[in-house]
Amino acid sequence: MKFICSKCHHLEDVSTHQANCQCGGLWKLDFSPPTFSIDQIDKNEWSLFRYRKFLALQDDAWRSVSLGEGMTPIVPLDDKVLLKMDYYMPTLSFKDRGAVVLVSHCKSIGVKSVVQDSSGNAGNSIAAYSARAGIECEIFVPEGTSPKKINMIKAHGAKINIVPGSRDNCADVCRAKVQQQSVYYANHVYNPFFYEGTKTYIYETFEQLGRIPKHLVIPVGNGTLFIGVIKGLEHLLESGIITEFPTIIAVQSEFCDPLLQANKKGTNLAEKVEIKPTLAEGIAIGQPMRAEEILTYAQKYPIHFIHAPEDKILIAREHLALKGIYCEHTTAANYAAYLHYCELYGTINDCLITMCGAGLKSDH
User: Does the pTM exceed 0.90?
Assistant: First the structure.
């Protein structure tokens, strides 16, 4: 198994501790999973590793890292909307899907210490699984990050650095440390093993419903769930399990929308946009590092970018809470964007919305 550079196509063994190619390109994984089949799911394994025959795993390191992530229920909100309850994960966010596979990879190749930058959820997830694996961990978060997310990261024994400025500045500070000190960058954007975990969102949905809904609402900041969903759907399509690609409603914050603006112009480079403070902090990414990959997918498949109106996020959160669904603000933005989409284009049926973060994490 190899990494392949997204720019120069250089091949590198996956055991490398280099965060990216020397040319500056990000790694992709040169891995083709076997044909998907329900019969190949290990139904005795109650975690996302029931799909391990379709994941890029080197060994069984995952057995001592897993916390039982995955297997989250799908529940109806009404007769048009289904909710995938991914905040039922061990650290209360969907990021556990990618983190458990990435940290398992770290353990497989003998990594002893990792760093990560995050708006909160990914950092918390990497911190938890690193603690589980016996790997030292240091997390960088931007100022304004939910105190409850910060406390969770600390609770897992990780060192935490609160960085002044934007989420993008936080990433720059962390990456500078990676370059200067050659520490392992266990990052959900740079490392493609993370997407091996997030693609299980699709495997799980298909196993639970016996189909893929016609519409999928997916938040897009750095695109970690988005890219995993695309990879999972492509695998099902190539395996003949599904015959058509669902419509993906890709959610960006009204106050931070570089991918939406680029898609509107038909370009593959993220637009430079003015970033304003937003309740949807989890998708407030002004410089998505995999923008070209995301936007190329958007031109290839039925993908529609939509704003989450800022003034509708708390209303959407309250509506969900009154239905028993207590989610964080970024997750409520997904539902706000769905309602906005229906206002613009008409009501849609058979829609699956991810509930990606728990409400207790953003009560601030």
Answer: yes
